[in-house]
C-alpha cells in the first residue's frame, strides 16, 4: 500500500466525478432536445469512457504503463461499442415505454436524481477498477491473461447477441421468440457478456493492492444485470409476449447452458 500513489489518486477522483457530470449534463440537454430520457442509455457506455480517459491521463508517471494502457483500451472499446449500438438502435424512435412508466407523474427533480445522477453514481462505482488500477505501480501479473480472456468472451457475447437481436427484429417473418444462436443458450447473451467484460477488467487489477478492494464493482454490475434493473425489469414486460414463458422454462436466464426439454 505504501507504493500506491494515494495523493495522485485522490486528486484524480474529483476530475473523474466532474467528467461524469459533464457527460450527464450533455445527456440531459440532449434529452430535452429529443424529447426522451431514454437517451441516457446511449450515454451509459460514454460515462465509463469519461472515467477511463481521466484515469489514463491522471495516472501518467505513477501507474504501470502496461496496466494503464490495457484498462484504457478495454474500457474504451466496450463503452464506445455499446454507445454506438444503443444510439443506432434508438435513432428516430420515441421514449422507451419503461421510462414512461417509471417517470409518469414525477417532477424534474425526481427525473434528474433517478435517471441521471443514479446512473452517474453507478458508473463511478463500477468503473473503480479502472480508476484505481490505473495508479497501481506494480507490473502486470499472469492473471491478466485470464482477465483479457473474460473480456474477449464478454465482448463477443455482447456484440454477437446484439447483432442477432437486430437481425431478428428486422425479419418480417420472424418467430414469436428469438431462440436461435446465442439466444438458444441464454435469454440474455448481452447481459452475460457485460458481466464477463467487467469481471475481466477487475481481474487485470485484482492481484494488486488496493486493486483487490474494487471487487465490489463487478459484483454490483453482475447483480444489476442478473437480478436488478437488467434482466428482472426486461422480463417483466417480455413475459406478456406469446411463447416467452415457454422460452423462459427451457432457456437459462443468464449463464449460457444447453436448453432444457
UniProtKB/TrEMBL annotation:
<feature type="transmembrane region" description="Helical">
    <location>
        <begin position="138"/>
        <end position="160"/>
    </location>
</feature>
<feature type="transmembrane region" description="Helical">
    <location>
        <begin position="38"/>
        <end position="57"/>
    </location>
</feature>
<dbReference type="Pfam" id="PF06966">
    <property type="entry name" value="DUF1295"/>
</dbReference>
<feature type="transmembrane region" description="Helical">
    <location>
        <begin position="69"/>
        <end position="87"/>
    </location>
</feature>
<feature type="transmembrane region" description="Helical">
    <location>
        <begin position="108"/>
        <end position="132"/>
    </location>
</feature>
<dbReference type="InterPro" id="IPR010721">
    <property type="entry name" value="UstE-like"/>
</dbReference>
<keyword id="KW-1133">Transmembrane helix</keyword>
<protein>
    <submittedName>
        <fullName>Steroid 5-alpha reductase family enzyme</fullName>
    </submittedName>
</protein>
<keyword id="KW-0812">Transmembrane</keyword>
<feature type="transmembrane region" description="Helical">
    <location>
        <begin position="12"/>
        <end position="31"/>
    </location>
</feature>
<feature type="transmembrane region" description="Helical">
    <location>
        <begin position="191"/>
        <end position="209"/>
    </location>
</feature>
<keyword id="KW-0472">Membrane</keyword>
<dbReference type="GO" id="GO:0016020">
    <property type="term" value="C:membrane"/>
</dbReference>
Amino acid at each position: 500500500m505504501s507504493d500506491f500513489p494515494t495523493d495522485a489518486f485522490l486528486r484524480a477522483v474529483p476530475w473523474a466525478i466532474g467528467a461524469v457530470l459533464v457527460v450527464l449534463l450533455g445527456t440531459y440537454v440532449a434529452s430535452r432536445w429529443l424529447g426522451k430520457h431514454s437517451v441516457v442509455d446511449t450515454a451509459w457506455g460514454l460515462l465509463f469512457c469519461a472515467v477511463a480517459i481521466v484515469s489514463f491521463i491522471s495516472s501518467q508517471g505513477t501507474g504501470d504503463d502496461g496496466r494503464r494502457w490495457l484498462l484504457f483500451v478495454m474500457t474504451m472499446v466496450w463503452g464506445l461499442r455499446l454507445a454506438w449500438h444503443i444510439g443506432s438502435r434508438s435513432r428516430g424512435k420515441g421514449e422507451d415505454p419503461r421510462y414512461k412508466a417509471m417517470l409518469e407523474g414525477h417532477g424534474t427533480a425526481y427525473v434528474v436524481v433517478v435517471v441521471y445522477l443514479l446512473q452517474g453514481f453507478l458508473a463511478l462505482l463500477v468503473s473503480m477498477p479502472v480508476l484505481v488500477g490505473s495508479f497501481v505501480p506494480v507490473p502486470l501479473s499472469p492473471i491478466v491473461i485470464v482477465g483479457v480472456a473474460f473480456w474477449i468472451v464478454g465482448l463477443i457475447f455482447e456484440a454477437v447477441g446484439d447483432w442477432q437481436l437486430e437481425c431478428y427484429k428486422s425479419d418480417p417473418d420472424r418467430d414469436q421468440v428469438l431462440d436461435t444462436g446465442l439466444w438458444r443458450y441464454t435469454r440474455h447473451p448481452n447481459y452475460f457478456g457485460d458481466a464477463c467484460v467487467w469481471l475481466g477488467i477487475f481481474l487485470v487489477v485484482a492481484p494488486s493492492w488496493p486493486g483487490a478492494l474494487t471487487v465490489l464493482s463487478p459484483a454490483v454490475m453482475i447483480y444489476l444485470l442478473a437480478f436488478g434493473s437488467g434482466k428482472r425489469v426486461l422480463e417483466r414486460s417480455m413475459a406478456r409476449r406469446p411463447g416467452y414463458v415457454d422460452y423462459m422454462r427451457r432457456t437459462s436466464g443468464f449463464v449460457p447452458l444447453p436448453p432444457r426439454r
